[in-house]
Amino acid sequence: MDYVFKVSWSPAKPTVFAAALSSGSVLLYDLSVNKREPVINLRDISKLSASQSALTLRFNKKQNDLLACAFSGTVINIYQLSPGLVERNLAETKVIESILESSS
């Protein structure tokens, strides 16, 4: 079973959030692209052992394209995110509004 240890919304883009999982996966979601599936699993590009869990994560508020993640075994990775996960566009407000309307 996979547990979610931490979820954090991007300070740069309101439709993007990241999740740190016990399996070591760091999943990035962009609700303007897909509401159910992550757009990327950062574990796929990390050189971590299978036993390492992703414990916590945080977006950098000053440099919006950076995401730091701490793993078990005292490993910290800093990922540079692509512009598509950082740059805002006008359609995002409509995506958030539609999500809020459908849930009420």
Structural category: mainly beta
Number of helical elements: 1
Shape: globular
Please bin the fraction of helical residues. Answer: 10-25%
- Spatial extent as radius of gyration: 14 Å
- Largest beta-sheet details: 4 strands, antiparallel
Whole-Å distance between the termini?
31 Å
- In percent, how much strand structure appears in the residues? 35-45%
In what order do the strands lie side by side in the largest sheet?
1-2-3-4
**What is the mean pLDDT?**
88
What is the number of strand segments? Answer: 7
Give the low-confidence spans. none
The string of secondary-structure elements, in order, is EEEEEEEH
Summarize the structure.
With about 100 residues, this protein is mainly beta. It has one helix at about 90-104; strands at about 5-10, 15-20, 25-30, 40, 55-60, 65-70, 75-80.
Would you write up a description of this structure?
A four-stranded antiparallel sheet has the order 1-2-3-4, with no helix packed on it. The chain has a three-stranded antiparallel sheet with strand order 5-6-7, with no helix packed on it. It has one helix and seven strands. It has 104 residues and is mainly beta. The radius of gyration is 14 Å and the shape is globular. The termini are far apart.
